[in-house]
UniProtKB/TrEMBL annotation:
<protein>
    <submittedName>
        <fullName>Uncharacterized protein</fullName>
    </submittedName>
</protein>
<dbReference type="InterPro" id="IPR036390">
    <property type="entry name" value="WH_DNA-bd_sf"/>
</dbReference>
<dbReference type="InterPro" id="IPR036388">
    <property type="entry name" value="WH-like_DNA-bd_sf"/>
</dbReference>
Amino acid sequence: MKPLHAPILATYSESRARIYRTLLSAPERDWSVGDLAARLPEVSVEAVRTTLYLLLGDHLVEPVAHRRSLTLRLTDAGRSMVRQIAARWEESPRERGDES
């Protein structure tokens, strides 16, 4: 896995895990902050916005042209990286901070 400019993206949080699962459930889909927040009512809009902007900064999502609001989609590298991070969290409860 390549190093991230924002290492927090690989640090487990329940909100981030839900966001990643949703992004990966439709990896070709275009997402705005509002779309993703509506899909995840248990996750704050701020967490969605922050995560998407961090993913953008690491070039794991790319802007979709000709949209009124900022709309993003996972890049090929982004799909791969987010899958790797999510898989690591699933395989190792310690990575998530679980004590069990």
